[in-house]
Amino acid sequence: MLEATNLSKFYGSVMAVENVTFTLEPGQVLGYLGPNGSGKSTTVKMLAGLLEPTYGEVTYNHQNIHKDLIAFRKILGYVPEEPNLYPHLTGEEYLDMVGTLRAMPLSRKTTRINSLLELFSLWPHRHITLGSYSKGMRQKILLIAALMDNPEVLILDEPLSGLDVTSVLIVKSLIQALSAEGKAVFYCSHILEVVEKVCTHLIVLRKGQVLAHGPTSAVHEKIGKSSLEDVFLGLVEDVDIAQIVKDIARVMACP
Amino acid sequence: MISRTKQWLRERHSAFCRSPFGCLVELFLSRMLNGAGDTEAGELDLGVGVILILLAMPGLLVSLLMFEKYGSLIRFLRGERAFDPFKAATPDEYLFIVLSVAVTGAAALWRWDTIFLDRRDYSNLVPLPLSLRAIFFANLCALLALTGVLTIVANGASVVLFPIAVVGSRPSLSLFLRFAAGHAAAVFAASVFSFFAIFALAGGLTALVPPTAFRRVSLSIRFVSAVTLLILLATSFTVPDLLKRLSISNAHRVAVLPPVSFLGVARTVWVGANDAFSSSMAGAAMIAVGVSLLTATVAYAFSFRRSFIRLPELADARPMTRISSLWSRPAFSQKLAFRSPAHRACCQFVSRSLLRSTAHLQTLLCFLAVGLVISAEMFAAGSDHFSAGKNTVPPVEFLSVPFILGYCILVGIRFAFEIPLDLRANWIFRLWLDSDRHDARSVARRVLLAFSLSWMAPLVLLVTLAFWGWMTALLHTAIWCACMLVLVEILLIRFRKMPFTCPYPSFQSHSPLIAVGYLFGFYIFKSWLPDLDQWTVWIPINAVWIVALLGSVLAGLTWYRNQMLDMDKRLTFEDVSRTTFW
After folding, report:
1. Do A86 and B31 touch (CB under 8 A)?
2. Rounded CA separation B361/A205 (Å)
3. In a domain? residue A126
4. How many Cβ contacts (< 8 angstroms) between chains A and B?
5. Are A106 and B18 an interchain contact pair (Cβ–Cβ within 8 Å)?
6. By residue range, what is the domain housing residue A183?
7. What ipTM was estimated for this complex?
8. A88 contacts in B (CB within 8 Å)?
9. Which residues of A touch B582 (CB under 8 A)?
10. Which residue range forms the structural domain that includes residue B509?
């Protein structure tokens, strides 16, 4: 069980996240929503142990993750927001490196890499350097790297970015299947309809603070809106969408 | 036996690479040799083999030249009967030492960005079950391995060939081995010192300079370091003579400074520790190596702690400082300066890319450094005439300075135009520029002139005016400007691409000819044109000849361009069939 308690992060005097508290149980898929600059990525980095919170703590099975980060990262699969890979390595070499660094046994590593490359349709491109991969292909490599050691906890930051329709469908179903197997999935995304379909629980964030938290259906009921888009707009965006659209069209038509 | 040893070594290496630590060391080493950037963007994309050959070439070429100098037949013909190899080879030993320092230092400067871990390493490695200590030590091991590789590659040829050239004809094996050992010890120590000195500088900067100012400061320091290395190289012909001419106390003071002190290492091995002067030099050299190693390690540890561990807390980029520029002028002046809005946009793109892209600015600064060092040498050579103050016309050495600098800057920018930025961003030019009516040459011309003539012409005028009056200043500046304009036209004769938008040009059969052309051009700008300039300043009516000469060159260029086929004038992006998936 992954638990965040009163998680706060300040960059100097600037508050990025304040008093975020939640629990991620095995089998749950927790959606993390918020507009740009609301503190989503900061939370993700703190959950992955990349950033130390200014206040509060992240615990895994009641133990602070910073007490034994290496043990925590052994059970963690992480897909960062940016597919920032080594351009001089081929797809296969990169995955082999990740497997070696995770100390996976050779035979298991090789079998998993080959199977996952095949399943994610990257087998024909495995000997091409990552610098030549498209964004979607890099994203698939990140997903494979996160999944290859069968992690207990998955932290996914915009995992569908750049993926084609088939891959999106595969990943959505995969998340549900992994959750059914008892994996805990933290899913950070802007794509509301995917979050709505995939996530069992939801956190809506604005300016670093939690606005709504609970099972997806409960959040819907609480706000009294039918779709997640309406919930999101009702909670987070205090802007008049129709007015903005009108203004953009007016600016475009200006001589 | 040999095959069994090979097999054993291969197995050990493979087992090491399969361990997490070995895998990290291998990754960091390949990252240092291959560069950290995208293959599509920026950096000079050379394979490891090419890099190693480039590093080995200077030592190899200079060593080969030594065979002629030390050949026994040549010495016999010169009438040199008594030959003390240790004494005779000392000036050349110094040349090899500074060459070793310069080549290793240049390689360290080139790979400056990759020797420290960056955001990419952080996002790929830190989420994995690895301790920060393992990452720290793996990178340190990779750095030590890189130092070893650079040291061996830069000096390998000279360690074998130089002793053969100097004492290869002697029948004594012990003499050969002693000479080779002394030479190897000196050049290897010099290489290690150079690498760690640059590394300490980079580490110190990372540890001390705020991240916001790091890029600018780092570029300036690299530029100064490159100039220093070139100056060191230029001292190779003067220092051994200087040491002989100095008083004993002054010679002692100079001799303990690196890289001169490394001569002491070689001489201590050659003639033994009885020579107190050589021993003190060797002691100073060893202290220099130790201090550079220690400083580099401390700086690395501090930079790792201050920079790498705090990476996620640092913003990716800060807003650029706004500098009022040529482009932010009133609309009417922009209409005069640029042919069309597209022309203006392209000029802005090229200028900003040149100033903001590290790889391009580095290339330009490298050429500028060469120009500065050669200009300084010319200026020093002409300083006697200059201080005498008797001349009514400036000495030719003084006149050559702007020609050399201008040539190096223009060729540097032209060279930088060939280095691609991100080729995936080319779609914007493909979409908007008309291939038949493109302004590529005009854009390149304006940028070349803006980066050279716009600031150098007033400087040349003012400096000449301060010493030799209006007439000389105007004539000299006008001739210099005309020569620069013609050079720009020559550099752009077949230019038909938007700068930075094409992949690296492939090697062609006439590429060596182009390289020779650039060297010949440099010679013309260093010697012939300043002579012609002085002749014109002396007798102003001679300007007619210069006008005729430059006019005929321009006419020739125009004729050549008119003869070109239309397809050779169309805008190109020089696509090559590379495996790229969008």
Report:
1. yes
2. 42
3. no
4. 81
5. yes
6. 2-86+151-253
7. 0.79
8. 30-31, 34-35, 39
9. 134
10. 341-568
Predicted confidence (pLDDT) per residue in A52-111, tens digit: 899 999 999 999 998 888 899 899 999 988 888 888 889 999 999 999 888 889 899 999
Same domain, B81 and B176: yes
Contact check, Cβ <8 Å, B39/A97: no
DSSP code, position A132: G
Best residue in B131, B133, B313, B318 for a mutation probing chain A (most A CBs within 10 Å): B313
Which range among B135-144, B259-268, B323-332, B351-360 shows the weakest confidence by mean pLDDT? B323-332
What gap in Å lies between CA B164 and CA B157, rounded to an integer? 11
* CB contact (8 A) between residue A137 and residue B119: no
User: Domain check: are B450 and B306 in the same one?
Assistant: no
Q: Is there a domain that residue A132 lies in?
A: no
Same domain for B385 and B303: no
A103/B581 Cβ within 8 A: no
Check A132 against B579: CB less than 8 A apart: yes
A238 Cα to chain B: minimum distance (Å): 27
Token pair for residue A105? 């046994």
Is residue A23 classed as helix, strand or coil in its secondary structure? strand
Cα B195 to Cα B191: distance, rounded to the nearest angstrom: 6
The predicted-structure confidence for B249-280, as pLDDT tens digits, reads as follows: 777 777 777 888 898 888 888 887 777 778 88
Contacts of B124 in chain A (CB under 8 A): 84-86
Q: Tokens 């050659």 correspond to what residue? A: B270
| Per-residue pLDDT band at B411 (split at 50, 70, 90) | very high
Residues of chain A positioned with their CB less than 8 A from the CB of B580: 132
Question: Among B294, B312, B330, where does a domain finish?
Answer: B312
Q: How is residue A245 written in tokens?
A: 């659209």
Residues 6+ apart with CB under 8 A from A159: A79, A139, A142, A143, A171, A187, A189
Angle, vertex CA B187, rays to CA B184 and CA B192, nearest 5:
115
Q: What is the pLDDT of residues B435-459, one digit of tens each?
A: 776 678 888 999 999 999 999 999 9
Mean pLDDT of chain B: 82
Do B312 and A50 lie within an 8 Å CB cutoff?
yes
